[in-house]
Every structure is written in structure tokens, then in C-alpha cells.
Inverse folding.
């Protein structure tokens, strides 16, 4: 259900695999996040995790998403290590009986991953390297679910 | 697929050593990611760091830095078992 991977993965393949063999699922929604080049300012992203703890924390949120949106299944694949622009960083998929809960669950999980999941992200480029921390926008996005 | 960041196998540690892990910018600031520090409580551990590296101690005090003991988030001072794993977690950001 939750995977941290250090090698590139194919989000299309992940989605096809997630959809396979479902006879009672009316809706699968998915989200794929890609590393951005920021007009050449970013040549590489370094994603660090805390092995064991990171998977456990994501699993806890995935299971709260299951309850909250009555999901049948959830998948989270997250890259760690060094990622060049254009490669997938994260893949989230949700399976439900109906579309609304599948859409919302992906949104909910991504807001959590952006500002609460135990990852540390460093962007490097020609001007040096910097750690990326959640923005006010990310925090506002997350707060929507706490209302 | 295997996890990329394995902490590896560590030699057996002495009775009062906590294994301390730093992540993100904290590791850059300190110049290390993992070391053993003699401490029986979290407060003692912070005190040891204050003596060794005041800048790191200062950074660890920031409210946005979370602390995990044996992979559970903690808010207050807690006792450490011998060989406890203490992780200091700066603001997190994935996706």
C-alpha cells in the first residue's frame, strides 16, 4: 500500500496495476507529482526519508483517508534519493465506489504529504542548494481538512 | 523495492548511549547524521548537545523541530532506554 522507492518508477504502470482486478470499484482517482526544473534553476531534488518511521506515518494517514472517504483501497509510492526534473516524485491512488470520494482522498493525501509527511527535500541548481519547507499555501491547503 | 537509506548494522552499544539521528537541514548544520550520545533522558541529551554544539542546540529548540524517540513523536522530556533511537525532525515536506 505504501512504498518508498529509490529508482524511477512508471506512474502509468502503477495506475494500471492499481486498477487491475477490481469488480466492485466504480472510481479510481490518481495523482502524480513530477520534479520541476523551475526554468533551469533546479537540476536535482534530493528526497530524504526516515526509514520505518516515514512508511508508518504515511500508513497512518492513508488509513485515516480510507475511513474518512470510505475507500476500498489506497496506494502511495514516493521516491527518495536523487531525482532529476521530469521524473515522478509521488504517486497517489484511491479506489472507491463513487468518484467524489476518490478525488477528495487524493487531494487529502497530497496535502498531507506536502507538509506533514516525514520527508526532507533539497533543491539544487546552478545557484547552489536549499532545503524546501512547506509554504503558507501548503499549510492552508492542509488546514482545509481540519475545518 | 529495498529502502534506500538503511541505517545498517550497528555494533552493540554501551548502556547509556542513545543513537541520535538528524535529518534535513539539521544534519547539514551539525555536519553529522547519526552518532551515539551518552544520555538517560531527552533533557540530558539536549544538555549534552548544548555543551558540544550550541548552534545545533539552538536549532533543535525551534518549535517546528519535532522529536521522535524509538520512532514515536514525543512532546515532553522522556526517559531513554539504553540504545534508544532519538530523531530530530525539521519541518517536513514531501511530494
Amino acid at each position: 500500500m505504501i512504498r518508498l522507492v529509490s529508482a524511477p518508477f512508471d506512474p502509468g504502470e502503477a495506475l494500471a496495476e492499481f486498477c487491475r482486478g477490481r469488480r466492485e470499484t466504480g472510481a479510481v482517482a490518481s495523482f502524480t507529482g513530477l520534479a520541476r526544473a523551475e526554468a533551469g534553476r533546479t537540476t536535482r531534488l534530493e528526497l530524504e526519508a526516515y526509514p520505518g518511521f516515514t512508511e508508518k506515518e504515511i500508513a497512518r494517514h492513508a488509513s485515516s483517508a480510507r475511513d474518512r472517504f470510505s475507500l476500498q483501497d489506497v496506494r502511495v509510492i514516493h521516491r527518495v534519493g536523487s531525482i532529476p526534473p521530469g521524473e515522478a516524485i509521488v504517486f497517489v491512488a484511491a479506489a472507491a465506489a463513487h468518484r467524489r470520494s476518490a478525488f477528495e482522498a487524493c487531494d487529502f493525501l497530497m496535502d498531507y504529504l506536502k507538509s506533514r509527511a516525514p520527508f526532507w527535500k533539497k533543491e539544487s541548481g546552478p545557484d547552489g542548494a536549499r532545503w524546501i519547507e512547506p509554504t503558507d499555501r501548503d499549510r492552508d491547503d492542509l488546514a482545509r481538512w481540519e475545518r | 523495492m529495498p529502502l534506500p537509506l538503511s541505517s545498517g548494522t550497528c555494533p552493540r552499544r554501551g548502556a547509556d548511549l542513545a543513537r541520535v539521528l538528524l535529518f534535513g537541514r539539521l544534519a547539514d548544520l551539525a555536519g553529522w547524521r547519526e552518532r551515539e550520545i551518552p544520555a538517560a533522558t531527552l533533557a540530558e541529551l539536549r544538555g549534552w548537545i548544548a555543551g558540544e554544539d550550541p548552534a545545533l542546540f539552538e536549532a533543535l529548540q525551534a518549535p517546528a523541530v519535532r522529536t521522535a524517540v524509538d520512532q514515536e513523536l514525543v512532546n515532553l522530556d522522556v526517559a531513554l532506554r539504553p540504545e534508544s533511537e532519538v530523531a530530530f525532525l525539521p519541518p517536513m515536506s514531501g511530494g
About this structure: The radius of gyration of chain B is 13 Å. The beta strands of chain B are 17-22, 34-38, 66-69, 72-74, 85-89. Chain B touches chain A at residues 1-7, 21, 23-25, 28, 68, 71, 87, 89-95 (CB under 8 Å). The longest strand of chain B covers residues 17-22.
